Structure to design on (524 residues):
């Protein structure tokens, strides 16, 4: 396990340099005017970033208001009786709810839980696995669809949230199985 | 769907903030207009100066009775007594660890530097200290009235997050430009095409609507690879590039196609072999024991994401809104290509 992790870590250290150096080198070999082509492509960066802004603002400000209103706590009290019977601990419920909404918020929550329950606790392990195995769904939607001006997202959000809910449940079960 | 979720977020924010504020008013949580009894000690004696350092003691029992709370104040707080034109002001030092509801009151009753302060109700008439003890005085401090905390908070949060959102997008410019530049070279040099041929057997079944040799498959492969290695910064430009390629195949301008939904679902499930740097920073080497659990969880949730994207796409509602409806898989709607190419 340890060796495999080392290997993966080594590999991931090389991915970006290989792409950033290898691709232009190969381009040079293929007689592509690499510098001009790079600049040509890089020009799009600004446009893409600016195009994302309205989508990100729309999603983030709504999430910000939701968090500030204390609605989250209400949601947690509401969901507790449902999740208790299936073995989902109340302590990690905030994580499960915040994770798809905000990345920085959920990272803060992990830090919070480390301070409250200790690094070794089962709750922290569950929250960390949740954090590591899912993405900030709403951010991804805003950025990826915003970049191409997609406003009607169809079944993207239900599919993403289904995967999120599954990941939260798996995280609890897997951690219980391995460490419980 | 996003319409409803978005509206639900806003409406619930408003409702919960409103309910919480009304509850505060009816319970008078902040005891607006009533002074809190405190005991002041003067460690440096009482000078006639404009600024006198004081030690503020709040009796725990008095505090709990006064605010109707279980919270306990600390044994004492450092502060200063200020003589101003409008009378005496008691100011707590910055960074004091205050119990609720004082912590919330600090948000409203504050000086320029975010220190909690309030007007002293009774003129301070200190009794000389016994022995070495400093002189002390009984007093009562009146804080500014606190009203509609949550309403103010959600308003502030909205402005705050709007700023954050723009900041995030602007912060992406450099990384986007870097990777989009390299991707352009990769396209021109034929690297993308080579990647497409490599990953076609795996990705084609997931994206049957994408033509066999389309560069979108190559971008998707790079996006997923970057995700697997925990390179979020690189994954985003690749994902955006993949979306742009998919948009070229999209006969509609603003409606997601099935392959777009699939790519998005796979990204939200975020396959990862390398834990995010942030988690490493938070948990340290503890992460070594968790990585196996993370890989299992993320793998299973990726399967769920793929199945969900496929299944939900077959629902009547999704079929009706499909921009490619009635088209053969991999086909392009007549005349649709032009508008797709128009996208940046």
């Amino acid at each position: 396990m340890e060796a495999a992790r080392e290997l993966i870590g080594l590999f991931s250290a090389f991915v970006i340099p290989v792409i950033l150096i290898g691709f232009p080198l190969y381009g040079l070999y293929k007689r592509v005017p690499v510098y001009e082509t790079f600049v040509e492509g890089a020009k799009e960066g600004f446009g893409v970033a600016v195009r994302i802004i309205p989508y990100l603002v729309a999603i983030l400000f709504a999430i910000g208001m939701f968090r500030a209103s204390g609605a989250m706590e209400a949601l947690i009290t509401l969901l507790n009786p449902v999740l208790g019977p299936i073995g989902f601990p109340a302590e990690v419920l905030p994580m499960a709810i915040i994770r798809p909404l905000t990345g920085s918020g959920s990272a803060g929550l992990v830090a919070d839980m480390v301070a409250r329950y200790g690094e070794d606790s089962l709750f922290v392990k569950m929250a960390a696995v949740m954090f590591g195995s899912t993405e900030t769904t709403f951010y991804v939607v805003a950025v990826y669809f915003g970049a191409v001006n997609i406003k009607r997202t169809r079944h993207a959000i239900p599919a993403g949230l289904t995967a999120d809910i599954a990941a939260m449940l798996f995280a609890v079960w897997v951690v219980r199985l391995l460490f419980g | 769907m996003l319409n409803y979720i978005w509206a639900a977020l806003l409406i619930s924010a408003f409702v919960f903030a409103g309910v919480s504020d009304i509850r505060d008013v009816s319970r008078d949580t902040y005891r607006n207009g009533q002074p809190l009894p405190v005991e002041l000690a003067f460690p440096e004696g009482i000078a006639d100066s404009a600024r006198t350092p004081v030690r503020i003691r709040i009796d725990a029992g008095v505090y709990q009775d006064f605010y109707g709370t279980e919270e306990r104040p600390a044994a004492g707080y450092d502060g200063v007594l200020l003589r101003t034109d409008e009378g005496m002001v008691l100011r707590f030092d910055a960074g004091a660890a205050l119990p609720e509801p004082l912590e919330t009151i600090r948000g409203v009753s504050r000086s320029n530097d975010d220190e909690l302060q309030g007007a002293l109700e009774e003129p301070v008439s200190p009794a000389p200290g016994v022995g070495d003890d400093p002189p002390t005085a009984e007093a009562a401090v009146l804080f500014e009235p606190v009203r509609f905390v949550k309403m103010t908070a959600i308003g502030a949060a909205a402005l705050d997050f709007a700023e954050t959102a723009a900041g995030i997008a602007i912060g992406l410019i450099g990384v986007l430009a870097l990777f989009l530049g390299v991707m352009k070279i990769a396209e021109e040099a034929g690297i993308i095409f080579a990647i497409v041929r490599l990953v076609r057997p795996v990705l084609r079944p997931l994206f049957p609507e994408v033509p066999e040799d389309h560069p979108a498959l190559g971008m998707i492969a790079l996006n997923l690879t970057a995700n697997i290695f925990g390179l979020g910064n690189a994954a985003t430009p690749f994902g955006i590039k993949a979306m742009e390629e998919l948009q070229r195949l999209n006969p509609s301008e603003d409606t997601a196609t099935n392959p777009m939904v699939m790519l998005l679902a796979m990204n939200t499930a975020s396959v990862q072999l390398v834990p995010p740097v942030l988690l490493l920073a938070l948990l340290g080497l503890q992460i070594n024991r968790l990585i196996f659990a993370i890989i299992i969880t993320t793998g299973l949730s990726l399967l769920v994401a793929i199945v969900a994207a496929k299944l939900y796409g077959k629902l009547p509602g999704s079929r009706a809104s499909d921009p490619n409806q009635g088209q053969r898989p991999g086909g392009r709607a007549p005349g649709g290509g032009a508008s797709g190419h128009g996208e940046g």
